[in-house]
Design a protein that fits this description.
By secondary structure, the protein is mainly alpha-helical. The chain contains 14 helices and five strands. 37% of the residues are buried. The protein binds tryptophan.
Length: 334
Amino acid sequence: MQKKEVILTGDRPTGRLHLGHYVGSLANRVMLQDTCQQFVLIADVQALTDNFENPQKVHDNVFEVMCDYLAVGIDPAKTTVFLQSYISAIPELTLYYMNLVTVARLARNPTVKAEIQQKGMEESLPVGFFAYPINQAADITAFKATLVPVGNDQLPMIEQTNEIVRSFNRIYKTDILVEAKAVISKTPRLSGLDGQNKMSKSLDNALFLSDSADIIAKKVKTMFTDPEHLRVDDPGKIEGNTVFEYLDAFALDAQKVQELKDHYQKGGLGDMVVKKYLQEVLIEKMKPFYERRKMYYQDKQQVFDILKAGTEKAAEVAHATLQEVKNAMHLNLL
Ligand code: TRP
């Protein structure tokens, strides 16, 4: 059976992936690979746009991210995982698309704006970073992706992509480029262990997919609960209590969670008891990831063979699109 939707997603390889990534996108990819033709891009070129002085970090994290993907069950027989820097059609498409995008339009991109501010790049903004939405449009269109599952922050990238698609098809009187639909995840972003921010590597509040049972248990002990729940007998709050947020997200026994909530709110249930249960729940969920990851981590050759095979397949697809694009632009004289 021909799978009709083509999905393209990707990550910048700048660190190991964590449970927030799992909830936000990886779990979805594992599910979608059965029904859709799925490409997953390790965006090392895009990662360099804000890490160009740190190429070793990007280099090293390609392997880490690959291990994370394989650990959660992204299956290379169903999903094409590939490395962006080996797909030369992408920068070439980017260059052609640059003619179709104004500087003013890029400057309005809210995601890029926010990133520039966060990273303090206002004074010396590299063109490469400023223009990365065009590069991302090339990622998406090279594979004629119809669906792009992303977080909210990536919506402006899809809009930019579709504007390029429409301009290109109109100007060059063709229909070869395909508009993509953003699929926004309905699951809210997972809080970090600190309960104050979303889970993120840089805030040091993450549970990594590579964490062992011991580390998970230790981290759960430090988790934010209800700061006013000082004595076991005091009534405790569920709202904003990260331990209960995680139980809602990961515990299979919803009835038990409800009983714990009732007891906690009434008073008489200590944080340690709830955390103990969360430790069990998380370890049950994450232990298979840890075991599988360890296996791949020890077999670098196999991991890179998988990435190489995916990259070769992706290069063919992207190259075919590039040929069509060049034909439409009359770059076919010889
Ligand atoms: N910009 C995405 C991120 O920062 C990574 C990415 C690159 C991507 N190319 C993509 C995501 C294409 C979806 C589609 O996480």
